[in-house]
Amino acid sequence: MPAPDSWGGPIASEPPFVEALRSLGHDVTTAVYVYGDKDRPTPFSARIIRVLKTAFRFRRLVKEDHFDLIHLNTAFDLKTILRDSISIFLMRPKSGVVFLKLHGSEAEKFENASFLTKRLIRFLQKNVDAFGYHTQDELNAFLRLGFDKDRFYAVKNAVTIQESLPNSFSRNQKDPDEVFEILFVSRFIPSKGLIETIEACEQLRRRGIRFRLTCVGDGPSRREADDTVGRLALGRVVTFTGHISEDEVTERFIHSDVFVFPTSHIEGFPNVLYKAVAAGLPIVTTKIRAAKDYLSEPSNCLFCSTDAENIADRLAELIGDQSLRAAMSRNNLEFGKQLTPVTIAQEFVEIYEKVFEKTCSSRR
Asked: What are the pLDDT digits (tens) for 59-107?
């Protein structure tokens, strides 16, 4: 589990997922394993000490009780390959099935990895019984590394926002000449597209489109974002909230008109994008990984590039077409029903049962 003060998708999706598993009658023990992003990176030495302490704590937990399955939330980058290898080696989970849920991955970077990294990857290949992946691109990258396709299962994240919507919720679509509330939510890093979004808004203003942009989050790109707003004289129409509570973020999703997310980041299943989907927001986003696999144009979104002019073009197109926004909103609300915690938990239980049966058969 992620630490309670973590940032990012896992802390938003995993606790309600676990509660849904319990509501279905399953016994679940949780322990902090994923720590999430913070303002400053954790020093390497402190990270190693934390990994070792966590692994030994897990080892005691596994020894003291019987678990049919051990589910670890992770990624697949250099840090998590090292962390997961150490953790699984020290935990020594001889009886339980080991399932790794990948919240994004960088498997494509390891085709020419160092000797040591390849050894760690082979250790995971041997000792992990199944992987939950989000996108076809991720799966293809693992297959190129020699992983067994039969150990991979497509999964989605739980999204809770529909539980906060009024009964029979629908969005009133504004006329194109009204003021539109545009929402951007993300960690503020260069690859998420915040600066390009602000530059796109300057072009919207030139075209006479009336709007307000609210940027929710924080991170290294905040100073550049402030400078860009000042340089383009957008201070009256661009607002930064900083980090706010999940309840406040939910309110922003409910009361906005359009969601924009021109990410170039190597995403897994970005929680903010699918909160926007489940909230029935019309969306402009890039065609990357989970957006490419699960969303279609124009049913769920309009796809853009990471170029400010193209982002502005797609936003202008969406704002100018009331019927398109209405249809997109209805489709996204319907798709959001597939992402509720109970629905996702039921899908995972089916996967767990398949993995458990397959693994136990192979060990006999």
From this structure: 999 888 889 999 999 999 999 999 999 999 998 877 789 999 999 899 9
Distances (CA, A) of 41 to 27, 47, 219, 312: 34, 10, 12, 34
Q: Give me the amino acid identity at 356.
A: F
pTM: predicted TM-score of the whole model, two decimal places: 0.90
Q: CA of 153: how far to CAs of 230, 288, 345, 352, 354, in Å?
A: 47, 20, 14, 10, 10
Tell whether the torsion through CA atoms of 40, 46, 52 and 54 is positive or negative: negative
- Express each pLDDT in 124-159 by its tens digit: 999 999 999 999 999 999 999 999 999 999 999 999
Identify the residue whose tokens are 């402190």. 46
Residue 333 Cα distances to 165, 237, 330, 343, angstroms? 10, 28, 5, 15
Residue 184 burial (CB count, 10 A): 27
Q: Give, rounded to a whole angstrom, the gap between the first and last alpha carbons of the chain.
A: 31
d(CA 254, CA 259): 11
Cα–Cα distance, 9 to 360 (Å, whole number): 32
Nearest in space to 340 (alpha carbons), one of 3, 8, 13: 13
Domains and CATH numbers, the chain: 9-158+341-363 (3.40.50), 161-339 (3.40.50.2000)
Render pLDDT for 32-69 as a digit per residue (tens, 0 to 9).
Answer: 988 766 656 678 788 889 889 999 999 999 888 889 99
